[in-house]
Design goal:
single chain, mainly alpha, Farnesyl Diphosphate Synthase, two-stranded antiparallel ribbon, disordered N terminus
């Protein structure tokens, strides 16, 4: 409820049932494409190794928002592409994303993912890491088979940025002096880069031109906004909706924007309170609630959501280069969803 109260603005408001219907309509636009992408998942999550098949089936059953494939599919359409390569490339992008989740959950010792026990809990760290490796290899096999060198170059650079972003976040763990600028560099690497790459790859399939730059920038800003909302949800979301353990970032010592803002705007006592609990794996409810009160008192939750709203407004402004149509409307709806989501 806190998240809903804080999401304000004429263009970006909490999702109502009407908004959900609009999102449903946007998804219907890509209905056949999305079915083809899911079929591609199933086909390529098939190995001679039975354990890979079982973990793959588990991951598929867990679902996901599929935002990155949606961005690639919509970008290809709005760029005028009428072929079939977008299906394989959308699948490859989601494989890359899923591989990073598997690896992240091992690094973070996560126990829950998308509302279910994380794969590393069910099958162990070794199996989860190796399945992530398999998915990365499969993703690039799909791109190579598609024979699109520009897309291969984009995704190759992006995977490097993803790894660097995660490493920067690890190095910055429990650093009370981490700046907002440094954190945004982390967010850009670990999240925004793949959003931007999905849009760029879709554009590369189409007519190209300046529209490709606009789509990539849209994805980049949307990805940064997505990460900021994710940072907030880690503190305020209902765990049953969020699909992950609330307060995990604080327990793992992760410096995210709400915490960084609170440290810059709170009292010395607030700073000591945060420092005392940051990185405590056995975080008590009282300690978590105490930090949450500091975030609310300093306006840090509201600040992060406002930054996300501004980013999405900037992202949608960049779509003005495209004529109005169902694909553009779907991208705009997706931006609303990103800042209004509860999971």
């Amino acid at each position: 409820m806190l998240l809903i109260r804080l999401l304000t603005g004429r263009s970006f408001r909490p999702l109502t049932r009407k908004d959900e219907v609009l999102m449903d309509k946007a998804l219907l636009l890509l209905g056949d494409d999305l079915k083809a992408v899911e079929a591609c998942f199933e086909e390529n999550l098939c190995s001679e190794i039975d354990l890979i098949n079982r973990i793959g089936a588990y991951l598929l059953a867990g679902g996901g928002k599929r935002i990155r494939p949606l961005l690639l599919l919509l970008s290809a359409r709005i760029a005028g592409y009428a072929g079939s390569q977008h299906i394989v490339l959308a699948s490859a992008v989601e494989f890359i994303h899923t591989a990073t989740l598997l690896h992240d959950d091992v690094v973070d010792r996560a126990t829950v993912r998308r509302g279910f026990p994380a794969a590393n809990v069910v099958w162990g760290n070794q199996a989860a890491v190796l399945t992530g490796d398999y998915l990365l290899a499969k993703a690039f096999s799909l791109v190579i088979a598609a024979g699109n060198l520009p897309v291969l170059e984009v995704l190759g650079r992006t995977v490097t940025r993803l790894a660097e972003g995660e490493m920067r976040h690890l190095v910055g763990s429990s650093d009370l002096d981490l700046s907002q600028e440094d954190y945004l560099t982390i967010a850009d690497g670990k999240t925004a880069s793949l959003f931007a790459a999905a849009c760029r790859c879709g554009a590369l399939l189409g007519k190209g031109g300046p529209g490709g730059d606009a789509l990539e920038e849209f994805g980049f800003r949307l990805g940064r906004a997505f990460q900021l909302v994710d940072d907030v949800l880690d503190y305020v979301a209902m765990e049953t909706e969020f699909g992950k353990t609330r307060g995990r970032d604080l327990a793992e010592g992760k410096m995210t924007l709400p915490l960084i803002h609170a440290l810059r705007n709170g009292t010395d006592q607030d700073r000591r309170r945060i420092a005392a609990v940051l990185g405590q794996s056995a975080l008590s409810e009282a300690d978590f609630t105490g930090v949450l009160r500091i975030l609310e008192k300093t306006g840090s939750i509201a600040y992060c959501l406002e930054q996300a709203r501004i980013l999405c407004c900037q992202a949608t402004e960049g779509l003005r280069v495209f004529a109005d149509g169902p694909e553009k409307e779907a991208l705009l709806d997706l931006a609303v969803h990103v800042v209004s989501r509860s999971r």
